[in-house]
Amino acid sequence: MTERLYEDNSQLPTMQAQVLGSGPQGVVLDRTVFYARGGGQPGDVGVLRWDGGEMAVADTIKGDAATILHVPAVGAELPPIGAVVRGEVDWDRRHRLMRMHTAMHLLCSLIKGAAVTGGAVGAERSRLDFDLPNPPPKEAVEAGLNALIEADHPVHMEWVDEAVLDTNPELVRTLSVQPPRGTGRLRLVRIGPAEAPVDLQPCGGTHVARTGEIGRIAVLKIENKGKQNRRIIIAPVEAG
């Protein structure tokens, strides 16, 4: 399996690893900081370098048996099996995705009691879909979101026994993506203090260390996507 360094520390932009498998479908490493696409968040891109060569990583996806595939760009040279490589994530893109993903958790905390029916994290804009017949005004959502950002709440990752989902099923807000089970462990993302979290839910994605890193967010629109399905689209103000 591939050790997922980003699960315990989203702030790592580089790593050193050994090549376990190498082919046109992807390069398997023993450890990685590259996030594998999933849960609505895109896979990381970047580069792998080794003595005598380098490979542009065009995407990162999940492989078989808990491995992660670093997908080579078209025509890229592949590292030999056994080689030691240095991996470097496209940090500007990754950090924008981290900011947006954490902003989506804050958005989820504002829309209380409504299940999330879908979502997608993007570097330029992101969306969450809610089972919600009567959404609040766009201006109110934007004001509430930016107030939580400006409060600069800490963001923590913690591991708990997956049985917590049996005793506390309301932790799961998403209908479209369920937390993986079977390993005995569950990763929770908590925003705010432990005694009174702003948001607490299972998540395998990457996040900023504090909400203040997100920067100001605009709510671009709230769309009607069905009888009770409302889509809220957000974007960083600079990408507006």
What features would you describe in this structure?
The structure is a single chain. Helix 1 crosses helix 2. The protein is of the alpha+beta class and 240 residues long.
List keywords for this structure.
4-stranded antiparallel beta sheet; alpha+beta; 240 residues; 37% strand
Give the secondary structure arrangement, pairings included:
Elements (H helix, E strand, L loop, with lengths): L2 E2 L9 E10 L2 E4 L1 E2 L13 E5 L2 E10 L5 E5 L11 E6 L1 H20 L5 E5 L5 E6 L6 H13 L4 E7 L2 H4 L17 E7 L7 E4 L14 E8 L4 E8 L4
Parallel strand pairs: 1-4
Antiparallel strand pairs: 2-3, 2-8, 3-7, 5-6, 5-8, 6-7, 9-10, 10-15, 11-12, 12-13, 14-15
Helix pairs in contact: 1-2
Query: What kind of sheet is the major sheet?
Result: 6 strands, antiparallel, barrel
Helix content: 10-25%
- Per DSSP, the total helix count is 3
Going across the major beta sheet, what is the strand order? Answer: 2-3-7-6-5-8
How much of the sequence lies in strands comes to 35-45%
Structural class: alpha+beta
Q: Give the CA-based shape.
A: globular
| Record field, number of beta strands | 15
Termini distance?
Answer: 40 Å
Q: H/E series, N to C?
A: EEEEEEEEHEEHEHEEEE
Gyration radius from CA atoms, angstroms: 19 Å
Poorly predicted spans: none
| Overall pLDDT | 93
